[in-house]
Structure formats: structure tokens, C-alpha cells
Design brief:
The complex is a heterodimer. Chain A is mainly β. Chain A is built from no helices and 11 strands. In chain A, strands 2, 4, 5, 6, 9, 10 and 11 form a 7-stranded mixed beta sheet that branches. In chain A, strands 1-3-8-7 form a 4-stranded antiparallel beta sheet, with no helix packed on it.
Chain lengths: 113, 114
């Protein structure tokens, strides 16, 4: 079964600190995504990648960087965390062919104080 | 660019009642449409999907959805809800193809009263 694993499950960070959220998939999928979930906004796309060593900006990339060192791993980096980045973050993956189904991780709850 | 509107932020129904959650999309070509469900403190799980063919698609746990091109809609239905159906439901649209992006609605929180 398709699997996307995120770490950590939750994190508390200080304003101005650096935060790295990690994602690992065993689906052999080409595409990986980082979404942010806020109450009342649904899910919004931050960054995505369709091949290792390459990332693309999504709809709300400001304040975030992404890294795709291998097909299996995709990280989201907050260089200078801010209060407004408190949210739940989801990683997802999908194939580059077929049904385009997207598989999600369980999420990382980030609180910036 | 595509967009999705879920007009009802919250819906409350009694156990055993029927359910319809509404979804309207905006996309110039034929879209790929999805419904996802999110249970508390979990990720999103795919309920059902539509790509082409029969406009009524069946999903898991008795859910179905109907695609209407004329109304740009993809409403989710269930004949008889159970308390365990309480969750947040997201409608999503994809452009399909290699560089497809999945765009979500804001979600509808379903509460089932026992």
C-alpha cells in the first residue's frame, strides 16, 4: 500500500528559529507536495517537486524553502519561523501517470511561539 | 487556473438520514475530480474520484458522487449516514497530466448526531 511518512508529528518552534519538516515516501512516485492546512482555508500548496534535486513554487511559497535530495525524500524548510506559520503541514505524493491519485501523510502540527 | 467552492462550512445531520455535500468547480477543460475525507488528527484519505464515463461514481463506505458538466458540480451523497462519518470532507480538482496540480476547496465539517 502507498505510504507517506512525515516527521516529526508535532513541533514547537521559536520565532526566528529554523524548522525542517521531513517527508519520506515508499510509493516510488515522481511527484511530491507540501501543503499547509489552516482552519477555514482548506489545503494550500506551498512547494512541489517532480524529480530529485528540483523543486517548484506552489501557490503560497513565501517564507518556505523545499529540498528534494532523492526520489523518496522531500523536506520543507522554514529559515526564519514566524507566528503566521503556525499550521498543520501535509506531505503528499503521486505518480506521473495513471489516475493522478494523491496520497497524504498524517501531517505535522507546527506551533511557532 | 482552477478553483473549488464548497459553500457549506458545516453540516449537521441525524444518524440514518441522507446526506449531500455540495461542491462546485471552475476549470475550462474536463477536470479530474476527487473527494477526500479527513478524520480528526489524521491525513486525508481518498473517498472517490471521477475521470470520465458514468457521471455517478461509487466510493468507499457507501458514498457516491455525481459529476455535472452543465452545473460544474461534483456533489457527494450518502443514503444513510453513521456517527462514524463525522469528519471534514474536501472536494478537489486536478488538471490531470504530468504537471497536474490538485486544488482543494475549504472543506465541509460534517457532524452526525446520534
Amino acid at each position: 500500500e502507498a505510504a507517506v511518512t512525515q516527521s516529526p508529528r508535532s513541533k514547537v518552534a521559536v520565532t526566528g528559529g529554523k524548522v525542517t519538516l521531513s517527508c519520506h515516501q515508499t510509493n516510488n512516485h515522481d511527484y511530491m507536495y507540501w501543503y499547509r492546512q489552516d482552519t477555514g482555508h482548506g489545503l494550500r500548496l506551498i512547494h512541489y517537486s517532480y524529480v530529485a534535486d528540483s523543486t517548484e513554487k506552489g501557490d503560497i511559497p513565501d517564507g518556505y524553502k523545499a529540498s528534494r535530495p532523492s526520489q523518496e525524500n522531500f523536506s520543507l524548510i522554514l529559515e526564519l519561523a514566524s507566528l503566521s506559520q503556525t499550521a498543520v503541514y501535509f506531505c503528499a505524493s503521486r505518480n506521473d501517470w495513471g489516475p493522478n491519485e494523491v496520497y497524504f501523510g498524517s501531517g505535522t502540527r507546527l506551533t511557532v511561539l | 487556473a482552477q478553483s473549488v467552492t464548497q459553500p457549506d462550512a458545516r453540516v449537521t445531520v441525524s444518524e440514518g438520514a441522507s446526506l449531500q455535500l455540495r461542491c462546485k468547480y471552475s476549470y475550462s477543460a474536463t477536470p479530474y475530480l476527487f473527494w477526500y475525507v479527513q478524520y480528526p488528527r489524521q491525513g486525508l484519505q481518498l473517498l472517490l474520484k471521477y475521470y470520465s464515463g458514468d457521471p455517478v461514481v461509487q466510493g468507499v463506505n457507501g458514498f457516491e458522487a455525481e459529476f455535472s458538466k452543465s452545473n460544474s458540480s461534483f456533489h457527494l451523497r450518502k443514503a444513510s449516514v453513521h456517527w462514524s462519518d463525522s469528519a471534514v470532507y474536501f472536494c478537489a480538482v486536478s488538471t490531470g497530466g504530468s504537471n497536474a496540480k490538485l486544488t482543494f476547496g475549504k472543506g465541509t465539517k460534517l457532524s452526525v448526531k446520534s
